[in-house]
Amino acid sequence: MDLDFLTHAPFWIALGQIIIIDILLGGDNAVVIALACRKLPPAQRAKGIIYGTAGAIVLRVILIAFAMVLLQLPFLKIVGALLLVWIGMKLIAPEEESHDNIQGSDKLFAAIKTIIVADLVMSVDNVIAIAGAAQSSGEHQLLLIILGLLISIPIIVWGSQLVIKLMERFPLIIVAGGMLLGWIAGGMLITDPLFVNPDQWTWAPKLLAYDAETKQAIFNASMPIYWVAHVGGALLVLAIGKLAAAKQKKTETAH
User: Fold this and answer.
1) 45: which residues sit within 8 A by CB, 6+ positions away?
2) Residue 178: which pLDDT band, with cuts at 50, 70 and 90?
3) pTM confidence score
4) Do the beta carbons of residue 82 and residue 125 sit within 8 Å?
5) Which of 15, 55, 212, 254 could pair covalently with 116 via S-S, beta carbons 3.0-4.6 A apart?
6) DSSP string spanning 156-188?
């Protein structure tokens, strides 16, 4: 097996991004796991957490692999980028969310099912963000996703309280996370086939060179458009998030 990719910076940058995204967007998952398993007998609680989390991880990998195939289609990366901007904005200016609909159960299988179903419902943001981060790395994307999940899930499940406290104490972590999603969105947008394939959609501007063999954009950090797209996406999320937070605060003050 060729392990040369382990010496390439894009692989480790993408892995770091995936772990950060999982931790930032996975706080709710830790709450769901705790709520779903709270009525289990102590002897079964650890099993509920482990089996439920394992099922959620497998499902997440399948969803992300499916999302990455879909992102090869024209226009979908544009939609994905816009969704990431929205998710990043919600991270910076969050709304109150309730978990009242998460039912605890004293049956192991029912608790596991609750964790997996709830994770599926809540995984849209993670799936899009992780697919975008993995695509920037080139090859070995599925390996990246699995590694990122395996590293970050234990942090979420067993260190969720610490992560939440750190985020509350240092709000800049949340802002940086939102900007990271904007950064990924910028790169995702300009690599959409619409903007790179010279043989199709000729009316659209072609922003990057195109590799006809792999049908992928040729995209690296030495290109000015790389920085313009990524930095522009990060700043856009910051601006929208701050405006939304200010508007929210104004509304709360008025009430």
Assistant:
1) 37
2) confident
3) 0.75
4) no
5) 55
6) HHHHHHHHHHHHHH-THHHHHHHHHHHHHHHHH
Residue 47 · residue 152 · CB < 8 Å: no
Are the beta carbons of 137 and 13 closer than 8 angstroms?
Answer: yes
Q: Which two tokens stand for residue 23?
A: 């931790």
Residue 170 carries which side chain, given as an amino acid letter?
Answer: F
pLDDT digits (tens, 9 = 90+) for 145-163: 888 878 877 777 666 566 6
What is the pLDDT of the chain when averaged over all its residues? 78
Kindly state the tokens that stand for 92.
């910076």
Nearest to 83 by CA among 141, 12, 25, 30: 25
146: which residues sit within 8 A by CB, 6+ positions away?
61
Contact (CB, 8 A) for 208 and 217: yes
The token pair at 81 is: 């980028």
Type of residue at 126: N
Candidates 171, 183, 16, 200; CA nearest to 93 is 171
In this structure, which amino acid lies at residue 117?
A: V
**Mind giving me the DSSP string for 182-211?**
HHHHHHHHHTSHHHH-TTS-TTS---SEEE
The two tokens of residue 138 are 């080139």
Query: Would you call 219 helix, strand, or coil by DSSP?
Result: coil
Angstrom distances, CA of residue 53 to CA of 38, 57, 59, 150 = 15, 6, 10, 10
Q: What is the pLDDT of residues 200-252, one digit of tens each?
A: 888 888 887 777 766 667 776 678 888 899 999 999 999 998 898 888 888 77
Check if the beta carbon of residue 77 is closer than 8 Å to that of residue 188: yes
Residues 6+ apart with CB under 8 A from 212: none
